[in-house]
Design a protein that fits this description.
Layout lengths: L30 E6 L2 E6 L3 H4 L5 E5 L7 E6 L2 E10 L5 E6 L28 E3 L5 E9 L2 E10 L3 H8 L43 H9 L3 E7 L15 E5 L1 H12 L4 E4 L1 H9 L10 E5 L14 E5 L7 H9 L1 H13 L10 E5 L1
Parallel strand pairs: 1-15, 3-10, 3-12, 12-14
Antiparallel strand pairs: 1-2, 4-5, 5-6, 6-9, 7-8, 8-9, 10-11, 11-13, 14-15
Helix pairs in contact: 6-7
């Protein structure tokens, strides 16, 4: 899929959460663009229960968001370390960023090998962290590039380091740092090992306990899955790296039962799509699975399970749009994004949302 032919004006970036935009607003206060194929309609997010039907199933990601950005130093140079993913051997995949002086932790990625201008790309690079912790880069996470590195941390357990000294990763288009609670969804469950998502599974952010209760009362079901999202690339929109996921037995059975009946399986977020599709066989049957997934959902691969998708609005160059096209088709995505720009919908993790239905 080539980039969408729309241009998103800078002023359509959501700079603060909706509940901070005016009195009386809560997370439900975002707008909801609905695409039934190429037919587009406009709604408030609180209208979602009336847009779904009894027997539909929402697949939700229970991964909690981590305070994954930590300040550090390489020599005399200041750096920001983004903790992306914990490996099976106890190492962490990390990204080093160069602070830009605007309070953002999403400054430009560091260049390779020049202390002060960028020291993130040499094996053996040592980073001093708060509380006496030390981090050493060991090897690139992937042969695709050197943005993310496997690193070993000593002196403190990483979950403790993040709790004591971390803050949520944020993009430069937002106005200010926010507390971690702003980045947790109503579905987030703490992991026993302290792992979670480096960046919020943001499609679920508009849900409130009240709205979940109303959906359940109307016969909409929920299937929890887990996928811990890593640090995305703000510059190159590269496909996701391997991520840890789990689809429990109860959720697999529920998804299969809904698919065998009249309900629709609607994923809440691209992370939920990736988890469910990673657990589906070529026959479309979902089986309980846990581990790592390197699946990239494209129109060529298609989807085997998911029939609908609730998602945020992505940049026109974002690799996630391939997944949207796999679910809904290129024509629906083109029409929906044109309507979103015309309608002045807000983009990004604090912005409005898009429901794609068959």
């Amino acid at each position: 899929m080539s980039s969408l032919a729309v241009r998103v004006p800078e002023e359509l970036s959501a700079r603060v959460p909706v509940e901070q935009r005016g009195p009386g607003l809560d997370r439900e206060g975002v707008r909801l663009l609905v695409s039934h194929g190429t037919e587009v309609s406009h709604h408030a997010f609180g209208e979602l229960p009336g847009l779904l039907r009894a027997g539909d199933l929402l697949v939700v990601n229970t991964s909690p968001t981590l305070a994954a950005a930590v300040d550090g130093r390489v020599g005399h140079a200041r750096v920001v370390v983004h903790f992306s993913t914990r490996g099976d051997d106890g190492r962490w995949a990390v990204e080093l960023r160069e602070p830009d002086g605007r309070g953002t932790t999403r400054a430009r990625a560091m260049g390779m090998g020049v202390v002060g201008r960028g020291c993130g790309g040499l094996a053996g690079t040592k980073v001093r962290l708060p509380g006496g912790a030390r981090l050493v880069l060991e090897e690139p996470l992937s042969a695709r590039g050197e943005r993310l590195w496997w690193a070993r941390v000593s002196g403190v357990a990483v979950p403790e380091l993040l709790r004591e000294h971390g803050r949520p990763i944020r993009y430069s288009y937002t106005d200010r740092d926010q507390p971690l609670s702003v980045y947790q969804t109503v579905f987030a469950l703490p992991a026993a090992d302290g792992t979670g998502s480096a960046e919020m599974p943001s499609a679920a952010r508009p849900f409130t306990a009240r709205l979940v209760a109303e959906l359940v009362s109307r016969g909409v079901q929920f299937a929890p899955v887990t996928l811990h999202t890593g640090v995305a690339s703000a510059e190159s929109h590269e496909p996701p790296y391997p991520e840890r996921f789990a689809v429990p037995e109860a959720s697999a059975r529920l998804i299969n039962a809904v698919r065998a009946g009249d309900g629709r399986v609607v994923a809440v977020g691209t992370t939920a799509v990736r988890a469910v599709e990673s657990a589906a066989g070529a026959d479309g049957v979902v089986r309980a699975r846990a581990g790592w997934t390197d699946l990239v959902v494209t129109p060529e691969r298609g989807v085997r399970v998911v029939e609908g998708l609730l998602t945020g609005l992505h940049e026109p160059e974002a690799s996630h749009l391939l997944m949207l096209e796999a679910v809904a088709g290129r024509a629906a995505i083109d029409r929906g994004y044109e309507a979103a720009v015309r309608g002045r919908y807000l983009w990004h993790e604090f912005g409005d949302v898009h429901l794609l239905l068959p």
